[in-house]
Design goal:
Number of helices: 4
Low-confidence stretches: 1-12, 157-162
Shape: elongated
Radius of gyration: 29 Å
Helix content: 25-40%
Largest sheet: 5 strands, antiparallel
Structural class: alpha+beta
Order of helices and strands: HEHEEEEHHEE
Number of strands: 7
Strand content: 15-25%
CATH class of one domain: Alpha Beta
CATH topology of one domain: Ribosomal Protein S8, Chain: A, domain 1
CATH architecture of one domain: 2-Layer Sandwich
CATH superfamily of one domain: HupH hydrogenase expression protein, C-terminal domain
């Protein structure tokens, strides 16, 4: 069996499958909205009827960027920047490494990578405690608890001493 030859003028990143092209258009509009209003967009790829070829075409058309993060927050996740800044490919997996969620996020930073404000507050407090501990360990005067006693002088005035 022979296969038809590829047209000479077909670009390497040619998208030929039905659902990849509308998704690319949606991503383009989401990028425009992000730049104009700051509003991010999440596109749930598992809710779109896509073949493996559609998915492959979409991944190929979006390419790879400079950032990739692997994390384990309630299961393993992979966050990859595409060749288009602000467009992120985000996948979540179960313990058996099966994909349970696949999104395109159009945002400066994907939500899963953002620190929770409460965690930031705790982080600042924990770092302050660590700095206090370091200061006490390097300054012998600070390792002794401060105590003061009150004594009277010959005129009945209180004198504080350490």
């Amino acid at each position: 069996m022979t296969t038809p030859a590829e047209p000479v003028d077909q670009p390497e990143r040619c998208v030929t499958h039905a659902n990849a092209v509308p998704l690319l258009a949606e991503i383009r509009h989401a990028l425009e909205r992000l730049t104009k209003t700051g509003e991010g967009t999440v596109i749930d790829l598992l809710s779109v009827p896509m073949t493996g070829n559609d998915l492959s075409d979409l991944a190929s058309a979006l390419g790879s960027g400079e950032v990739e993060a692997r994390l384990d927050a309630l299961g393993p996740s992979l966050v990859r920047e595409t060749a288009y800044p602000g467009v992120w490919w985000v996948e979540h997996f179960n313990a058996g490494q099966q994909t349970i969620a696949r999104h395109i996020e159009v945002t400066p930073v994907p939500e899963i990578l953002r620190a929770d404000p409460r965690a930031l507050e705790e982080s600042a407090a924990r770092l302050a405690r660590q700095l206090d501990d370091l200061a006490r360990s390097t300054d012998p005067a600070k390792t002794q608890p401060a105590t003061s006693t009150i004594q009277g002088d010959s005129h009945g005035q209180a004198i504080h001493s350490r």
